[in-house]
Amino acid sequence: MIIKSLSEAPTSTLSCIVHCATDMPEGEESLSAFIGKLSNQAMRFETARVHRNEKKIDGEKAILRRLHNEGFTPATQALGGILYKQGHEEEAKELFKQAAHKGLSNSMYSLAKILWKNARTIEDKKEAKQWLAKAGEKNHRLVLYDLGYMTCKEGNIAKGKAYFEKASELGCRKSIYLLGGFAHKAGQTRIAQAYFKKAKEQGYVKPPKEDAQVTPKTPSKRDNVEVFIRKS
């Protein structure tokens, strides 16, 4: 299928196209021609998703790798995800880094996850947090939750709560519940109940002691990505 204009592209591909179109490389004939090229790449990206849904991983990888070689950033990110799950961490890290530099927040998050897991020095952890912060600037709710968690663990509760508040505004259910936990701990029963009710309505239910997870304490041997970087 050859797409000649953006209007012919399926709506499911539009976000990919728009993101890539903002970074048109030099040498392209025109913006309209570049968008046509992106539209066709996005269609092939959708085909890769079909392969994934059908559990045809090799077919998905083949399409994604071709698209990556053509410079289609969403494919770079998706290929990194597959390789990471298959244990090819170094190659995945490089792909995430490429996509992160192109502005994809999920890749920033994944890169930070790998960097933190393998951190050996304070500088390594600093780099991981920098990528988390960049993703947070793009309102990635899981990243905002992680930043809140890490900041609270470092002792800055006020700043950590600010991250949780922003994450909760974006629908992070765990952040909503943790804010309830903070209110509960502060004796603000009515506010706590409102947070807990909202979290429950969104399908998240945990004991009120949940807020103890972000209370500052001496780092343990589990001071790694599994502690600090988790999905809500």
Q: Care to give the gist of this entry?
A:
The chain is built from twelve helices and no strands. The chain has 232 residues and is mostly helical.
Structural features, described:
With 232 residues, this protein is mainly alpha-helical. It has 2 domains: 1-103, no CATH class; 122-232, Tetratricopeptide repeat domain (Serine Threonine Protein Phosphatase 5, Tetratricopeptide repeat, Alpha Horseshoe). The protein has 12 helices and no strands.
Q: How can the largest sheet be summarized?
A: none
CATH topology of the largest domain, by name, is: Serine Threonine Protein Phosphatase 5, Tetratricopeptide repeat
Overall number of domains: 2
CATH superfamily of the largest domain: Tetratricopeptide repeat domain
